[in-house]
Amino acid sequence: MIEISRRKLLAAGAAGAAAGTAEALPTRPWIRYQAERATANARVRWRADMIRETYRMVWVAPDWNAKEMFEAFIGPDGNPTHGAACVTYPGDPGRRMAFVAIDTQDPNSITMLRTFKKLSHLIDFHIFPLAFLGPESEFQGATILGAPNRALALDDQITLFSQKGSRGIEYDVSRISEESERKIWANTNLFRATRGVDVPFGIYLGMDGGYRPFNNQPDWDHYLALFDLVKAK
C-alpha cells in the first residue's frame, strides 16, 4: 500500500487551488441545472408578485368582465368595433395588443401615455380617448380622433399637457366634425356599457391568453412584468 503523508496532500491541494485561479474548473452539469432552475423559479415568482400587485391597484365593478370589455372595443381583426375609434402607434406586426381608455384632462392618463410611448414598438396599444371628465375632454378627444395623424395629435396633447399652465392642445368647436363627435361618444358610452368606472384603464391580452386589467403603475417593473416583456430585473 502506498502511503501519502498529510503534508503532501495539503501541498497538492494548494497547488490545485493555485491552478484554479488561472483556469476555473467547469461547473458540473447537475449543479448548473440546479442553479438555472432556481433562477427560473425566482423569475416566475417575481413576475407573479408584480402582476398580483397590479391587480390590487385596479378598481373594477363587481360584475365587470375583462374579456367582454376588450372584445367590445377591439374586434378579432384588431380594429375598433361598435363605432369606437382609437389611436395607435406604428410598429412591427404581431405585437401583443392592449386596450387603453384615457381622458385627455386626466394627469394619470398623460403619465401612463408617456410610458407607453417608450413601449409602443413592443406592444400594440389601442388608445381610446373618452369624454369622461367634462367638455374639454370631449373636444380634445374629438379633435385627436379627427386629426389626419392621430398619433401625432395625441403626442401634442401629451407634450403640451405636461407643460406648466397648459391643459393641452387647442381646439375649435366649430371645426370639429359630427363624425369625430360620434366617435368620442361611442368610446365613452361603450366604456360605461361594459362597466368601466375610472380612467386611465386598460386590458392587456397576455401571452397566456389571459386578459389582464391595469391602470397607471408606480414603476417600470410592474409594466414589464404585466406586458410579458421581461421575467426579472
Could you explain the architecture of this structure?
- The protein contains eight helices and four strands; from the N terminus they run αααβαβαααββα.
- The chain is of the alpha+beta class and 233 residues long.
- It has a four-stranded mixed sheet, with helices on both faces.
- Helix 2 crosses helix 8 and helix 5 packs across helix 7.
- The longest helix is centred in the N-terminal third of the chain and has 28 residues.
- About 5% of the residues have low confidence.
Structure summary:
The chain is of the alpha+beta class.
| Helicity level | 40-55%
Biggest sheet details: 4 strands, mixed
Mean pLDDT, as a whole number? 83
Count of alpha/pi helices: 8
Briefly note the structural class of the backbone: alpha+beta
Spatial shape: globular
Distance between the termini: 57 Å
Give me the Rg, rounded.
27 Å
Number of distinct beta strands: 4
Strands ordered across the widest β-sheet: 2-1-3-4
Secondary-structure element string: HHHEHEHHHEEH
Report the portion of residues in β strands: 5-15%
Which stretches are low in confidence, meaning pLDDT under 50 for 5 or more residues running? 16-26
Question: Which helices and strands appear, and what pairs or packs with what?
Answer:
Blueprint: H1 6-22, H2 29-56, H3 66-73, E1 96-102, H4 107-119, E2 123-129, H5 135-145, H6 150-161, H7 178-193, E3 201-205, E4 211-214, H8 220-226
Parallel strand pairs: 1-2
Antiparallel strand pairs: 1-3, 3-4
Helix pairs in contact: 2-8, 5-6, 5-7
